[in-house]
Design goal:
Elements (H helix, E strand, L loop, with lengths): L8 H19 L2 E8 L4 E5 L3 E5 L6 E4 L4 E5 L5 E6 L2 H12 L11 E4 L15
Antiparallel strand pairs: 1-6, 1-7, 2-3, 3-4, 5-6
């Protein structure tokens, strides 16, 4: 099959990926899992469309959920599963939740993806 115009060749892969993600989202759905690490750090559902995070700040953070996104929280309140049919929206909501308290490289506390590997940094060494 020959193309009329070679400028649109780059869009073929993009279009294929977008169609694949849409079909996959409707048939299986997309999920993203987050872990909350830290003493006293937790998340809980408030109503149907709000997640309340307690992340060591002086106030709890209320995170409103966009339409089409569902969140499940385990009984320990430290594991959050974001799911929906739109891959981009699921990833964006998970990234926004992670940005509330990014993982600290020194103490490994914060909100991280479940499959994320962190390198722990050494702290300051004592002055002699």
């Amino acid at each position: 099959m020959n193309r009329e115009n070679e400028r649109v060749a780059a869009l073929h892969g993009l279009t294929r990926a977008l169609v694949f993600n849409a079909v996959q989202g409707v048939t299986k759905g997309w999920t993203r899992e987050l872990d909350i690490v830290g003493i006293g750090y937790r998340a809980e559902l408030k109503g149907k469309g709000t997640v309340v995070f307690t992340l060591g700040y002086s106030h709890p953070i209320e995170f409103p959920l966009p339409t089409g996104i569902e969140v499940a929280i385990d009984p320990k309140q430290t594991h959050v599963t974001v799911s929906g049919i739109d891959r981009q929206k699921v990833g964006q909501v998970a990234a926004d939740m992670r940005s509330l308290r990014k993982p600290d490289p020194y103490k490994n506390k914060g909100v991280r993806y479940s499959d994320e590997k962190l390198k722990k940094k050494a702290g300051k060494t004592g002055a002699k």
